[in-house]
Write a structure and sequence with these properties.
Elements (H helix, E strand, L loop, with lengths): L1 H8 L10 H4 E2 L2 E2 L18 H18 L6
Antiparallel strand pairs: 1-2
Length: 71
């Protein structure tokens, strides 16, 4: 709860991208995607596959949605 208060107290010109939202759907975090491909190398590192197919597209969308990139 303390973390949410800190985030809510930040100025409006600060944007936060949480890559876990790209990997964890419906509050379910799995070590593989629906096709069985691994998302993590170990407990703290993601695979290149996860970055390319999940995080990168969501990050680009985040940048476009917040007008940091033009479509």
């Amino acid at each position: 709860a303390g973390e949410l208060k800190i985030i809510n107290d930040l100025k409006n010109d600060i944007f936060i991208f949480n890559p876990l939202n790209s990997l964890c759907k419906n509050n379910n975090c799995s070590v593989t995607d629906p096709q069985g491909k691994p998302l993590y190398i170990d407990q703290t590192h993601i695979t290149d596959y996860a970055n390319k197919n999940y995080i990168y597209p969501d990050f680009v969308d985040f940048l476009q949605t917040n007008n940091f990139l033009k479509n």
